[in-house]
């Protein structure tokens, strides 16, 4: 029986501190350009669509769908005891495709196009990890 | 300005070893550079341009000193394993501009030292990508393969054909790490590493390296060995495009088009192709992106021995490629150039030599297929092409 996924602590920088502190409260924040409204990913304080240095944060819906995925059968520490597990691109309802884990889902159940919702896994050191599970209706 | 025909590859050398645990990167550079210069019939003191990656110290600063060179032009463009393909293009450009006359492009790799960036470098995307248990490149490339399968119906058996072709070539290369031909079934039966990629979908991990000498055409004319013309070069960075990444294509769509345009030829004119093969999916996407078939049709294109030399529709990686022969320091661009040079000189093993090989490409994909990559393409021609 494999172990639950580990919760490695992400590196927090001045540009991403707000993002990670919101995860601790169970909120997935996304940056948006103040000039052209483009939703930005990965989080940064610069808009690659128009070149603006003015960005703001807004809460995402937490909904999305699987764009693509892999099932890791041979992991490296600290993930080595959690195989098999799923790494996926989830396409958020707001547009960006983000790398993440799909959890609460057997590896043979994951599919491209599957609807998912965000869950947060506390790292115990401030930030929580945004992962996704199959959407339960 | 065009570089078409202004510079030639006049010397090439691939390190024969695949395991060099007691060597160092500078020492491997010195060995392959000595080999490439001897192949060209030139001396270290003839060299006035130097190109390498940034895995040794300050790149060219450290290596130019180690080698005792005095050069007027250096470049250490870092786009992963495709760097050396770009370096040849940059060397040809510098030569065409009169900045140097005889340039060395060198790669040294020791796999255990890693092929990525130096530790401590800032990767702004890193915190959003390195916490999910992606196990190095294989899982990253697997995500691209899955999407390609989803959109176009590509199958694992089709990907396996790429490995089979490489293995059929590698049996004729006495230096190849893996010299036994494999079947589609053996690829599919090899352990699944990261769905849908099996162990045999992955390249070998080796030490070693290689070097080429790029020179002005006037220099090439006076040398005894046949030379190879640089006809065109293109490069590109494809990235996640603000989170709207499309995993079904690579940067080859741009680098290939640029290289072909400069050379004034098209994919149908290519006699032999060196295509970066970190994984089978890397080859499949690039075959489509370079224009050898329609997007999405790569899976059927590779069937029926299409990639097998000498008679296939697109003979590729006749040294066995990264999948079977050599992938020094996890960087496969240099060996792609060297095998294209061998083909154009008619010097490969007779079993894999493409008859009357006049036009070839060497294509590199550095970085990661599912996130960001540097792509570089060279069009090379036989001296009379
Ligand atoms: Zn903007």
Give an overview of the whole structure.
The complex is a heterodimer of chains A (137) and B (385). With 137 residues, chain A is mainly β. Chain A contains 1 helix and 7 strands, in the order αβββββββ. Chain A has a 5-stranded antiparallel sheet with strand order 5-4-3-6-7. A two-stranded antiparallel sheet of chain A has the order 1-2. The mean pLDDT of chain A is 95. With 385 residues, chain B is α/β, with parallel strands linked by helices. Helices cover 32% and strands 18% of the residues of chain B. Chain B has helices spanning 25-40, 60-67, 83-96, 137-152, 156-170, 184-189, 217-221, 252-263, 280-289, 298-301, 321-325, 333-345; strands at 7-14, 49-51, 73-75, 102-109, 192-194, 197-198, 208-216, 228-238, 272-275, 359-367, 373-382. Chain B has a 9-stranded mixed sheet with strand order 3-2-4-7-1-8-11-10-9, sandwiched between helices. Chain B has a two-stranded antiparallel sheet with strand order 5-6. Chain B is globular. Chain A binds chain B through residues 5-6, 8, 10-13, 15-16, 38-44, 48-49, 67-76, 79, 82, 85, 87-89, 95-101, 107, 112, 129, and chain B through 124-129, 131-136, 139, 142-144, 146-147, 150, 191-197, 240, 242-245, 247, 370-371. The complex binds zinc ion. Zinc ion is lined by residues 33, 35-36, 38, 47, 49-50, 52 of chain A.
């Amino acid at each position: 029986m494999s172990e639950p996924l580990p919760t490695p602590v992400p590196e927090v920088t001045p540009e991403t501190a707000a993002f990670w502190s919101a995860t601790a409260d169970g909120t997935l924040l996304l940056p948006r350009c103040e000039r052209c409204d483009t939703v930005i990913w990965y989080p940064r304080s610069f808009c690659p669509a128009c070149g603006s240095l003015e960005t703001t944060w807004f809460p995402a819906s937490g909904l999305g769908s699987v764009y693509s995925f892999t099932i890791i059968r041979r992991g490296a520490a600290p993930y080595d005891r959690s195989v098999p597990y799923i790494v996926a691109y989830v396409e958020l309802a707001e547009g960006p495709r983000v790398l993440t884990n799909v959890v609460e889902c057997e590896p043979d159940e994951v599919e491209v196009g599957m609807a998912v919702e965000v869950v947060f896994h506390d790292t115990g050191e401030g930030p929580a990890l945004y992962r996704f599970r199959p959407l339960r209706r | 300005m065009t570089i078409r025909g202004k510079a030639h590859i006049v010397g090439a050398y691939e390190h024969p070893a695949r395991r060099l645990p007691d060597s160092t990167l500078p020492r491997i550079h010195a060995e392959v550079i000595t080999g490439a210069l001897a192949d060209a019939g030139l001396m270290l003191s003839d060299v006035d341009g130097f190109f390498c990656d940034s895995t040794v110290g300050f790149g060219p600063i450290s290596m130019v000193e180690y080698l005792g060179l005095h050069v007027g032009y250096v470049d250490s463009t870092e786009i992963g394993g495709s760097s050396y393909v770009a370096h040849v293009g940059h060397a040809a450009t510098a030569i065409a501009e009169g900045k140097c006359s005889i340039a060395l492009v060198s790669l040294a790799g020791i796999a255990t030292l890693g092929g990525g960036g130096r530790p401590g470098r800032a990767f702004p995307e890193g915190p959003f990508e390195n916490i999910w248990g992606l196990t190095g490149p294989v899982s990253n490339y697997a995500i691209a393969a899955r999407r390609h399968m989803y959109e176009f119906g590509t199958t694992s058996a089709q990907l396996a054909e790429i490995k089979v072709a490489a293995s059929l070539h590698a049996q004729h290369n006495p230096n190849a790490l893996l010299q036994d031909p494999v079947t589609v079934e053996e690829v599919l039966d090899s352990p699944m590493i990261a769905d849908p990629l099996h162990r045999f979908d992955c390249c070998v991990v080796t030490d070693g390296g290689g070097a080429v000498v790029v020179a002005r055409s006037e220099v090439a004319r006076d040398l005894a060995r046949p030379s190879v013309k640089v006809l065109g070069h293109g490069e590109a960075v494809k990235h996640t495009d603000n989170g709207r990444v499309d995993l079904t294509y690579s940067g080859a769509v741009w680098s290939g088009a640029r290289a072909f345009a400069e050379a004034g030829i098209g994919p149908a004119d290519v006699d032999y192709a060196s295509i970066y093969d970190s994984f089978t999916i890397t080859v499949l996407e690039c075959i489509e992106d370079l224009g050898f078939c329609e997007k999405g049709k790569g899976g059927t294109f590779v069937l029926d021995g299409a990639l097998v030399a000498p008679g296939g529709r697109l003979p590729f990686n006749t040294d066995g490629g990264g999948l079977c022969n050599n992938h020094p320091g996890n960087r496969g661009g240099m060996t792609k150039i060297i095998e294209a040079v061998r083909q154009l000189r008619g010097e490969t093993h007779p079993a894999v030599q493409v008859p009357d090989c006049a036009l070839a490409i060497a294509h590199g994909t550095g970085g990661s297929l599912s996130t960001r990559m540097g792509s570089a393409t060279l069009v090379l021609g036989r001296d009379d092409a």
